[in-house]
Amino acid sequence: MYKTVDEKDLNYLSSIIPSERIFYGEGVSEDYAHDELGGISRKPDVLINVLSTDEVSRIMKYANDNNIPVVARGSGTDLVGAAVALEGGIMICTKLMNHILELDENNLTVTVEPGVLLMELQAYVEERDFFYPPDPGEKSATIGGNISTNAGGMRAVKYGVTRDYVRGLTVVMPNGDIEHFGSKCVKNSSGYDIKDLIIGSEGTLCIITEAILKLIPKPLESVSMLLPFVSMEKAIEVVPELIRSKASLTAIEYMSLDTIISAENYLGKKFPDTNYEAYILLTFDGNSKEELEKEYSKVADMCIKMGAIDGYFVDTDERKKSVWNARGAFLEAIKASTDEMDECDVVVPKSRVADFIKYTHEVAQKVDIRIPSFGHAGDGNLHVYICRDSMDENTWKRKLNEAFDLLYEKAREYEGHVSGEHGIGYAKKQYLSLQVGEGQMKLMRDLKKVFDPGNILNPGKLV
Amino acid sequence: MYKTVDEKDLNYLSSIIPSERIFYGEGVSEDYAHDELGGISRKPDVLINVLSTDEVSRIMKYANDNNIPVVARGSGTDLVGAAVALEGGIMICTKLMNHILELDENNLTVTVEPGVLLMELQAYVEERDFFYPPDPGEKSATIGGNISTNAGGMRAVKYGVTRDYVRGLTVVMPNGDIEHFGSKCVKNSSGYDIKDLIIGSEGTLCIITEAILKLIPKPLESVSMLLPFVSMEKAIEVVPELIRSKASLTAIEYMSLDTIISAENYLGKKFPDTNYEAYILLTFDGNSKEELEKEYSKVADMCIKMGAIDGYFVDTDERKKSVWNARGAFLEAIKASTDEMDECDVVVPKSRVADFIKYTHEVAQKVDIRIPSFGHAGDGNLHVYICRDSMDENTWKRKLNEAFDLLYEKAREYEGHVSGEHGIGYAKKQYLSLQVGEGQMKLMRDLKKVFDPGNILNPGKLV
Known about the structure:
Two copies of one chain form a homodimer.
Chain A lengths: L6 H10 L5 E3 L21 E4 L3 H14 L3 E4 L16 E4 L6 E5 L4 E4 L5 H10 L2 E2 L11 H6 L7 H4 L6 E7 L5 E5 L11 H5 L8 E8 L1 E2 L3 E9 L2 H13 L6 E6 H11 L10 E9 L2 H17 L6 E3 L2 H20 L4 E4 L8 H15 L5 E4 L4 E7 L5 H21 L15 H23 L12
Parallel strand pairs in A: 2-4, 3-4
Antiparallel strand pairs in A: 1-2, 5-6, 6-10, 7-11, 8-9, 8-10, 12-14, 12-15, 13-14, 13-17, 16-18, 17-18
Helix pairs in contact in A: 7-11, 8-10, 11-12
């Protein structure tokens, strides 16, 4: 159906891109055959490290004219197979397009290439007293990837998600045309909002080659508090109360003892406290120390009344490191604790978080499989891991499907969504279809066709 | 090309909607022939006051099957002809769908019908200590209309625009299908973001029949400050400094003496000060009086150093009333001051606001026409009015076009957009096309076709 890249194609590609940035056949590293999702793997015919919008445009035009599929890839940290070249073809890697192009202090924007890593961007702007609020756990993901999945992260409770910080995009369309959507402007009611259609489209509509991001002034103060509870039920019960109290919280994360122990083992580092079954981690930020103190004292009192054993400040450098390193390592730690795993990144209304976490325990029992979870209790986005441990292949497949079916069915019942921040990619298409129905799936396929009539851009994903 | 509504159609419509809510021919009030834009006017064949999503669905299905154009209308306060039935047909008026359906304190959302007025929503949630931040000047617009134009308003500097507060939409598609996009959930990375494509689409893709809106806790304190300057140049010069200073401002509005005088004449009420040429109105909000005091003292000092004559607090009830009533009446006052007018609602990067306002003065001189303006200096969205005064028709048309051409050309040069918050509608299509180019216009037309292959929904608008 698609054309395989052959010598003639390679010759053309080498005429527009220096050959030291082109890898072919055996020259393509195994790393580019997969992302962080287990189970699917395929190398692209050719891998190209691009340097500019213009290069992407020339490659796309050629691929489109010759019916060669193209997949764009950043760091490849995604969990749903979105960056796997299912049909071979060309992989465009943006990792060398990693320049911060402009910090505009008059418009509070930063303009970046898509291969800039989240951690690089955060460090760059914070050194200059600005703040880029989206804070997904995976700091080595690229900004291009973050935009393509509308990544969320921990600070969504207060600050929203990646979408809320993308002011403008430069993209290459499947036919090679270069288009700009949005700008540095704060407001825009000029035609259909194509920028937001592209955000979260997982590289299926066009390739992002530049982004203008909104910044805010960096909050002067930030403090976190760790609250232990005797059970996850007790811990999670405080979340709706916190939300109803209108306390100004930046992040509300939950974590279970077994996840913390996994992280301790994985990192070889101690967590500040491992005496209790469940923990809530709260973050507050603002410009006034006094205001913050008032706020967290009120919240700590409330939580202790509701069953928190204590409220540890995460204030010393050492404690910050031990807590945040553990939080950052949860995914890798769970991965390391099992032969294989797959993830369910549902989002439910905040009021349903407690019920959903309880339900994961029921499913674990019913299916007889280990299901650790952690995540963003304050915004309803849970990261639920189905662990293979040492099951045989058939049992694993059966139990995984059984658990997924139950979990996604419950998410639908709660009027949630299949994915809060990791996307649909290849792995979650069937559940998306169950959630939104055939009418909306057709609408999405038709929208895809408008952008990409030849279906050469990231085929087999999302729709 | 389209079918005119005839007796057979009326009979069918009367079989699904009680006839006291159907108006036909002479029975349709002249008010429904136009919006707030001068110059275009046409009555729909039939006007229907709908009560439910289901009614809208049945009407749409019939209209689609019979090739009858349909326009949805809220309060009809728009300024670009978006709510005018250019092709006749059916007008669906949502003013009776004006119920607030649910305040969900656990998820911080409010669910509303589209005909709820902005002022009704604001009052309802603020009485309950919640806050709906978008604050367009026209408080009698409906929420459905606000969503359809992605209305912005004064508080966008701090809080963003309508788009940022729409979590979910129930809509009726052109074929009558009912679809839900989004939900109460905070995060969503599950397929293409169709919700945001609908926001700002001016009723051309589907009809919004229900919206889930995000609320935030109501700030405990809010204070405004009025700063007089000897000239608009001096006034506007402080804006980039305010932005660079990272002061936490909710609104930064500018107004000229002539606009204020127009408002005084229109309202028959005095403004607190009319001794200077230009004024900046700042608003601060937050939860701590002390913090707010610190913030506005710093800002006032800065402004006075930069040429502000004084800094009046808008604190007493009387002063608040006189300032905000005047601010709210600017548009009507300018309208009342001239035989006819047309409006340019450009948005430019914040750093270009001063340059753009200066340029409006140059254009006024060059074209020899009166061009008052006011607007959102803090977010780059200016409301610029071209006044006919007592010109004859031909001179007016010529000068209006000349002024528009110059203003929109400058907006393009500054990488701004045709509309910050009022939309494109019928009146601004040519300027949108000049801004985004044929490639993007075609893309938008193709997207429209996916939703509405028969082009029966609000034809002749936007694309």
